[in-house]
Amino acid sequence: MAMSATGSGNRARGGARGSTLIELLVGLAIASVLLGAATLAFPRTDARRAEQAAARAQALVALACERAELSGEDIGIAVEQDRLVFGRYGDGAWRAFADAPHEALRPRRLDPEVTLELRVEAPLPALPEDGATGAQALCLAGGGLTPFVLELHGPARRHWSLHGDSAGDLRLESDDAR
């Protein structure tokens, strides 16, 4: 009696067979890889939008403060109509940086679903204004920073705060609104 490598020869040839454990595991592995790829392709959930906007705001403020130190000129920070705006003081007025692709500190709307609120903990020195909205906080050329709190309220009741202190340090905190 001939015996096959997978079992006894009692099985009828051409009969229906079930899936083996290896076939099931391969199918499960393929499904897992596809699910992982879909998750990586669509990472922005409502719960993460405020977190990503807060991280971008922190990076932009850090860049503004670094540029202020390197250039020797104070750089202003303001929130205008749900946008984060950076500028410098010159010719008797605050001027926002150009809204051009080559300008890293151009006005930014971080996310359409995230609202911004900037609270300054110490008043700015009196500076002449030309009627336009001026800076609300400053990155100082000497490395300091006007103490401030930038509140970011996002979808899914997510809330983040970016704190800047007089030593120039930035701290990002999450406080889920309930």
TrEMBL record:
<protein>
    <submittedName>
        <fullName>Prepilin-type N-terminal cleavage/methylation domain-containing protein</fullName>
    </submittedName>
</protein>
<dbReference type="InterPro" id="IPR012902">
    <property type="entry name" value="N_methyl_site"/>
</dbReference>
<keyword id="KW-0812">Transmembrane</keyword>
<keyword id="KW-0472">Membrane</keyword>
<feature type="transmembrane region" description="Helical">
    <location>
        <begin position="21"/>
        <end position="42"/>
    </location>
</feature>
<dbReference type="InterPro" id="IPR045584">
    <property type="entry name" value="Pilin-like"/>
</dbReference>
<keyword id="KW-1133">Transmembrane helix</keyword>
<dbReference type="Pfam" id="PF07963">
    <property type="entry name" value="N_methyl"/>
</dbReference>
